[in-house]
């Protein structure tokens, strides 16, 4: 370069340097005063953030034992205090970046002007001049403050305004913090490449050690990477990184002569990095079978007031309710029943701890592997906590029964169980031979009649419960289902027809099919129905969160729904006892025996008419939940059992794989909880309320019996059948014992033909010749199935 040009550049550099000082010291003077004012404005906007020093950090989600489930982050950074950072790392970073760190007050004026003059005279950036304080400010604005690409470019732009802003903040920082605090912040902030932010994650990523255990050569390598983390990658440019590390060691030899021999020896060692970076995977995708639970916990926290962005940056400790013993046991049981490789069938289950103050989710599993590879049938769809499948079938008879008990029916009441029943005004089944606006239903097998409510719940005849919902009403039954836990049914659009909710669809059309559970259900909510009954009728939202702590270890307040007493405790306890017969001699007894089940349990099975989905609901004092199998495809087919598979004519029932899964999953962990027993009975709900008692009308004439029943608040119908009593004499009624106040009581009158008289309360029901017995109709209104 000609000497004249060099002199001119140097002269210009001097003028600029003088202007820089003037701009810094006299902010109102001239053009640089304007620049300084802009810098001051910028300082005002970000200085509080920089001085506070809060940086994005990893949030950790753990199970009930403290074992990690997932890590959530925007920048993979684990902040550590000064005493958790190796002195070797501190010495190496200061040696290569800012050897006068302990002498200056935030800005090394000597180095700044030397670099300024050299870079200006050469026409390019050949030398830095920033202190660790200044680099901290620049990196903080780049990695924390900047939210857009434009802001990130501005954070590193080579302009006087940015430099002035950086200098001002560095000077302020040095006044308010100690040197050790500044260095610790810097090492916790900067990017070391391969997704590692901060020295702790860098130490783990490259060497599999904590920051406090970094050796001299390890620390020197990390200190060297900071200059250009994209360039100095030990996996793609190992020789360049080795040379850079040795450069750092050379500076340490020069700056710390007392340890020169140690540093020279370190230069002869290999890099020693692990074969591949050890960075932790981000989010629920790495949570394996806990992925569904992790997703639910994330959704729950967002509803509770902590957004995903906050979780990704906040450094929270999220203590969940997931019990690994229950989770592992349920996952093993589910996989044994429902092969994860099945393309079109899935089984899901959630287990909840009943309680008066909370319903903690202990396990949430699916037969489907949580993942992104659809070719091997993985999914990340929220199967366990969204509306899926064709329905839980006869489990919905619980809601009809509970609504009837609330209206006065006792569990000892005898219910009529015809082989076929046509419910007028309860929707149209479209079945041949079934009148318009009539819902026709038959039983899947042969049942004696009448049955007590307890017997009917265990044996599950369809006709008895369709008759019962006609007496109770569809609206009270649907409302009972919602109160006990099926809260999604109130959401607009769940019916699949415009904005109409599932609940409103059944109510508006008075669909008696609701008692047979023929529509999609949220499996987690179904599990929570069990928890509500096990909690004496106390509903609480199914919670996956025990506690959230911020990065300073302080509890974070969450906005959560309050628990509600939705039915009388006596009703819940008595219904639980009635459901206690299902595993003893009912539809789930076979699976209970196969699993070696030998303790009291309340349960109910359910299957849809087309065998495209089935479920089992069960609960003890300590554990409640449901197992649900359904066709997991846009066009689900009928399902066959043992092994589960799609088939032309299904035979899947809730008492098969769903019940077996539940019993097999819960039995191994029963010993972790208090002994099991059924709750005490409440006589009010055993015999029914006073106004539900049916007068004894045996032996009366039709007129006398009718008068007595009407006087007690009931309606009356009559059927004549063979009998030896005088013609027209009452020889039986259904129901008997108790009934819903205002419901219809059927009188069975003798025709006096000298035939055997049925025992009181167990009349011979009339045959219905000439009426075709159709299959149970399909769902009146199809519901689109979400994936």
From TrEMBL:
Tagged with keyword Glycosyltransferase: yes
Main EC class the enzyme belongs to: transferase
Keywords, alphabetical: Carboxypeptidase, Cell shape, Cell wall biogenesis/degradation, Glycosyltransferase, Hydrolase, Multifunctional enzyme, Peptidoglycan synthesis, Protease, Transferase
Any single GO CC term annotated in Swiss-Prot or TrEMBL for this entry: outer membrane-bounded periplasmic space
Enzyme Commission number(s): 2.4.2.-
Catalyzed reactions per annotation: [GlcNAc-(1->4)-Mur2Ac(oyl-L-Ala-gamma-D-Glu-L-Lys-D-Ala-D-Ala)](n)-di-trans,octa-cis-undecaprenyl diphosphate + beta-D-GlcNAc-(1->4)-Mur2Ac(oyl-L-Ala-gamma-D-Glu-L-Lys-D-Ala-D-Ala)-di-trans,octa-cis-undecaprenyl diphosphate = [GlcNAc-(1->4)-Mur2Ac(oyl-L-Ala-gamma-D-Glu-L-Lys-D-Ala-D-Ala)](n+1)-di-trans,octa-cis-undecaprenyl diphosphate + di-trans,octa-cis-undecaprenyl diphosphate + H(+); Preferential cleavage: (Ac)2-L-Lys-D-Ala-|-D-Ala. Also transpeptidation of peptidyl-alanyl moieties that are N-acyl substituents of D-alanine
Domain PASTA stretches: 688-751
Pfam families assigned to the protein according to its UniProt record, in alphabetical order: PASTA, Transgly, Transpeptidase
GO MF annotations in UniProt: penicillin binding; peptidoglycan glycosyltransferase activity; serine-type D-Ala-D-Ala carboxypeptidase activity
Superkingdom of origin: Bacteria
Keyword Transferase part of the UniProt annotation: yes
PROSITE patterns per UniProt: PASTA
Cross-referenced SMART domains: PASTA
InterPro entries: Beta-lactam/transpept-like, Glyco_trans_51, Glycosyltr_51/Transpeptidase, Lysozyme-like_dom_sf, PASTA_dom, PBP_transglycosylase, PCN-bd_Tpept
CDD domains: PASTA_pknB (cd06577)
BP GO terms, sorted: cell wall organization; peptidoglycan biosynthetic process; proteolysis; regulation of cell shape
Family (UniProt): In the N-terminal section; belongs to the glycosyltransferase 51 family.
Name of the featured protein: Monofunctional biosynthetic peptidoglycan transglycosylase
């Amino acid at each position: 370069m000609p000497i004249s040009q060099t002199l001119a550049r140097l002269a210009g550099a001097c003028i600029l340097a003088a202007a820089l000082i003037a701009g810094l010291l006299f902010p109102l003077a001239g053009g640089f005063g304007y620049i300084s004012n802009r810098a001051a404005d910028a300082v005002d906007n970000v200085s509080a953030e920089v001085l506070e020093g809060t940086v994005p950090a990893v949030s950790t989600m753990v199970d009930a034992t403290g074992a990690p489930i997932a890590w959530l982050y925007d920048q993979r950074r684990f902040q550590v205090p000064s005493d958790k950072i190796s002195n070797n790392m501190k010495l190496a970073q200061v040696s290569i970046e800012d050897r006068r760190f302990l002498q200056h007050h935030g800005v090394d004026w000597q180095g700044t002007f030397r670099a300024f003059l050299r870079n200006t005279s050469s026409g390019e950036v050949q030398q830095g001049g920033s202190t660790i304080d200044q680099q901290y400010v620049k990196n903080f604005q780049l990695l924390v403050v900047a939210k857009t690409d434009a802001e990130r470019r501005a954070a590193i732009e080579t302009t006087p305004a940015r430099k002035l802003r950086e200098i001002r903040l560095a000077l302020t920082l040095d006044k308010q913090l100690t040197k050790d605090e500044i260095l610790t912040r810097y090492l916790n902030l900067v990017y070391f490449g391969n997704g590692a932010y901060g020295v702790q994650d860098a130490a783990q990523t490259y060497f599999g050690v904590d920051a406090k255990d970094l050796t001299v050569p390890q620390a020197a390598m990390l200190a060297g990477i900071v200059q250009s983390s994209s360039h100095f990658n030990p996996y793609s440019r190992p020789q360049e990184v080795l040379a850079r590390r040795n450069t750092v060691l050379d500076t340490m030899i020069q700056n710390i002569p007392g340890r020169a021999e140690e540093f020279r020896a370190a230069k002869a060692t290999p890099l020693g990095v692990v074969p591949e970076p050890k960075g932790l995977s981000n989010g629920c995708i790495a949570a394996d079978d806990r992925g569904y639970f992790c997703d639910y916990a994330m959704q729950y926290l967002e509803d509770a007031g902590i957004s995903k962005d906050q979780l990704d940056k906040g450094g929270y400790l999220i203590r969940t309710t997931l019990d690994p013993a229950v989770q592992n046991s349920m996952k093993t049981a589910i996989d044994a029943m429902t092969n994860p490789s099945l393309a079109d069938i899935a089984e899901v289950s959630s287990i909840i701890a009943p309680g008066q103050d909370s319903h903690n989710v202990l396990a949430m599993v699916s037969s489907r592997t949580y993942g992104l590879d659809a070719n091997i049938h993985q999914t990340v769809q929220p199967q366990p906590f969204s509306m899926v499948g064709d329905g839980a079938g006869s489990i919905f008879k619980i809601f009809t029964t509970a609504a009837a008990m609330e209206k006065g029916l006792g569990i000892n009441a005898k219910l009529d169980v015809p082989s076929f029943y046509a419910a007028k005004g309860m929707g149209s089944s479209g079945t041949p031979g079934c009148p318009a606006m009539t819902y026709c239903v038959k039983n899947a097998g042969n049942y004696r009649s009448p049955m007590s409510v307890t017997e009917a719940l265990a044996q599950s005849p369809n006709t008895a419960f369709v008759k019962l919902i006609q007496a109770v009403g569809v609206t009270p039954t649907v409302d009972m289902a919602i109160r006990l836990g099926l809260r999604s049914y109130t959401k607009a659009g769940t019916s699949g027809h415009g904005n109409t909710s599932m609940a409103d669809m059944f109510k508006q059309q008075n669909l008696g099919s609701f008692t047979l559970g023929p529509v999609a259900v949220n499996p987690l909510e179904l599990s929570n129905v069990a928890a509500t009954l096990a909690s004496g009728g106390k509903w609480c939202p199914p919670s996956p969160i025990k506690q959230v702590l911020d990065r300073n270890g302080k509890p974070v307040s969450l906005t959560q729904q309050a628990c509600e007493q939705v039915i009388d405790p006596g009703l819940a306890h008595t219904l639980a006892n009635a459901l206690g017969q299902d595993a003893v001699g009912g539809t789930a007894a076979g699976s209970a025996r196969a699993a070696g089940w030998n303790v009291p349990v309340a349960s109910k099975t359910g299957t849809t008419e087309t065998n495209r989905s089935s479920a089992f609901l069960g609960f003890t004092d300590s554990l409640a939940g449901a197992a649900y199998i359904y066709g997991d495809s846009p066009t689900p087919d009928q399902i066959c059992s043992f092994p589960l598979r799609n088939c032309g004519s299904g035979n899947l029932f809730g008492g098969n794989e769903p019940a077996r899964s539940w019993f097999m999953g819960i039995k191994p962990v029963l010993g972790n909880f208090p002994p099991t027993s059924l709750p005490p009975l409440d006589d009010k709900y055993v015999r029914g309320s006073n106004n539900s008692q049916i007068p004894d009308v045996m032996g009366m004439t039709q007129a006398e019996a009718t008068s007595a029943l009407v006087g007690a608040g009931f309606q009356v119908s009559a059927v004549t059948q063979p009998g030896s009593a005088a013609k027209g004499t009452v020889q039986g009624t259904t129901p008997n014992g108790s009934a819903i106040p205002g419901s219809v009581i059927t009188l069975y009158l003798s025709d006096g033909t000298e035939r055997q008289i049925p025992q009181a309360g167990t009349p011979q029901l009339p045959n219905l010749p000439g009426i075709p017995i159709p299959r149970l109709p399909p769902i009146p209104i199809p519901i689109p199935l979400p994936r």
